[in-house]
Amino acid sequence: QCWGQDGEGKVSGAPMGMNFQDLSVGGSAACAIAQDGSLMCWGDDVDGILSNQPMGSAYQDVAVGATHACAIAQDGGVECWGDNTAGQLDMIPADKDFIQVGARGAFTCGLRAGGAITCWGADIAQVVSSAPSDTGYTKLGVGNDAACAIHPTNGLSCWGSDSFGLISNAP
């Protein structure tokens, strides 16, 4: 169930009567993955987030940013669609080992099966270039100009902008 301001149809356009396994809400659109792995997006079709969404594959994770979205297919490959002004669609890794994806603004980060993190798109606040190079991460979170990941032995790792203390005040 969705609630809030319905300016772009994020509330009234939401699919009803279905069971979902994943959900992401972005700037003006939302996408969800149904139990059968199918992908559904609704809201405003800014930069083709609705009209260019991939069809036909089964997906396991989805992330909607401000003007682009990405999903991980069952084979671990990443598919992205929407705005490409910062190359966020051109730089998608071809590897098929992704288990989680996070999208914001003009960049995307993905968590790989071995716990490595890969980011691509615009290098806002060095989020792309300063992503951790070690492995073993288990969870990823992406914000407008920073990202964080959980490592079971090293704890929380954050990178990118510290303008709101996200990095310097991390536990």
What would you note in describing this structure?
This protein is an all-beta fold and 171 residues long. 0% of the residues lie in helices and 40% in strands. The protein is built from no helices and 12 strands. It has strands at 20-25, 29-34, 39-43, 59-64, 68-73, 78-82, 98-104, 107-112, 117-121, 139-142, 146-151, 155-160. The strands form 4 sheets. It has a 3-stranded antiparallel beta sheet, with no helix packed on it. A 3-stranded antiparallel beta sheet has the order 4-5-6, with no helix packed on it. A hairpin with a 3-residue loop joins strand 10 and strand 11 (146-151). The protein is globular and about 40 Å long. The termini are far apart. 36% of the residues are buried.
List the helices and strands and how they pair.
Layout lengths: L19 E6 L3 E6 L4 E5 L15 E6 L3 E6 L4 E5 L15 E7 L2 E6 L4 E5 L17 E4 L3 E6 L3 E6 L11
Antiparallel strand pairs: 1-2, 2-3, 4-5, 5-6, 7-8, 8-9, 10-11, 11-12
Give the structure's gist in a few sentences:
The chain is mainly beta.
Strand content: 35-45%
Low-confidence stretches: none
Largest sheet: 3 strands, antiparallel
Mean pLDDT: 89
Alpha carbon gyration radius: 16 Å
User: Which percent bin holds the helix content?
Assistant: under 10%
Overall morphology:
globular
| Oligomerization state | single chain
Say how many strands there are.
12
Overall structural class, as computed from helix and strand content, comes to mainly beta
Strand order of the largest sheet: 1-2-3
Order of helices and strands: EEEEEEEEEEEE
Q: How far from one another are the termini?
A: 33 Å
Number of helices: 0
